[in-house]
Amino acid sequence: MLAYPQRMSDSHAGDRRATFDFEISFLNGGGLKGEGFRLDIPGEDATERELADALVRDLRLLMVRDVRILNKRIIFERHKRAAVPEAGAPEAPAGRFIDLSHAIDDGMVTYPGIPAPHICDYLSREASRSRYAPGVARRVRSAECFLASRYPDIQVVSRVSGTYDTSRSEDLTNGIVQAHPELKAVLSFTAASTRGVHAALHSRQVHRTISLVGCEQDSDLIGYLGKGEIAAIVAENTYRMGYEAVGLIVDSLAGKPLPARSVVPPLLIAKQNLNYAEALLFTSFPR
Fold first, then answer.
1. 194: which residues sit within 8 A by CB, 6+ positions away?
2. Among 8, 152, 223, 233, fewest CB within 10 Å belongs to which?
3. For strand 16-26 and strand 267-270, is the pairing parallel, antiparallel, or unpaired?
4. How many CB atoms lie under 10 A from the CB of residue 206?
5. How many other C-beta atoms can be found within 10 angstroms of the C-beta atom of residue 194?
């Protein structure tokens, strides 16, 4: 028996589409799944990474944590519309703003009149320290000064850095709990480290006896807080921070003087005030 490919018109004989299943998870919780999804591709084939990038751009998704492409096949099929541009070669849309739902390349103009970014090689922790914004370090110093002045009897038994690495924070917490069985509380300064500390305390079944206070919030941590597995979270009003930042950018472009410092106060959220109107401003996570 002989098998022939489906006959196509000459003008579309080179058209190919990728068909695949996908699973998408988001940084603020939740996910999206699809089966048998079809996507126009510009060439003869596309890697799973290229399909993932094109899918995120095409669906205009934000706050994507991870994309898994499954059961990929390339088929001959007429394009339904113009193929999604290849990553790294986007055309600037009409208007003053450029859509940043794709990766930013070295030298890409992201806003008229603002210099294009220079993307250099990855810097080590030591080499990048001089470029840090004084965020987490200032947060740690402020917390220690506050504890020393208000609660001088509290003894700090360990100071470790697991700032943005959940697995490292979990490992460090396991070591601290093992070395200090009398431990009463852990203060964590980022959402990532708080997730690691929570995982360690929960796996050891001491999350009810060792109080965990975290900084920064996400949907998972708010869920743990509601179940009583986290004592409190120092939450940031990220929407207000973004609003203030955009206002400062607008003022700067208009040539207006800028304040030396802009402060958006945080809010301490515990289970008792979790559902208060003020707290809900800090804990809503639209996508």
1. 169, 188, 212, 214, 215, 216, 221, 230, 233
2. 152
3. unpaired
4. 14
5. 27
Place of tokens 């597995």: 229
Q: In the block, which residue shows the tokens 């796996």?
A: 203
Model pLDDT for residues 89-128, shown as the tens digit of each residue? 555 444 444 455 556 666 666 666 677 777 777 667 667 6
Give the strand order in the sheet containing 211-215.
185-187, 211-215, 232-235, 267-270
Q: How far apart are CA 279 and CA 287, in angstroms?
A: 19
Q: Are 217 and 226 in contact (CB under 8 A)?
A: no
Question: In 3-state terms, what secondary structure has residue 34?
Answer: strand
Beta carbons of 270 and 211 less than 8 angstroms apart: no
d(CA 176, CA 153): 20
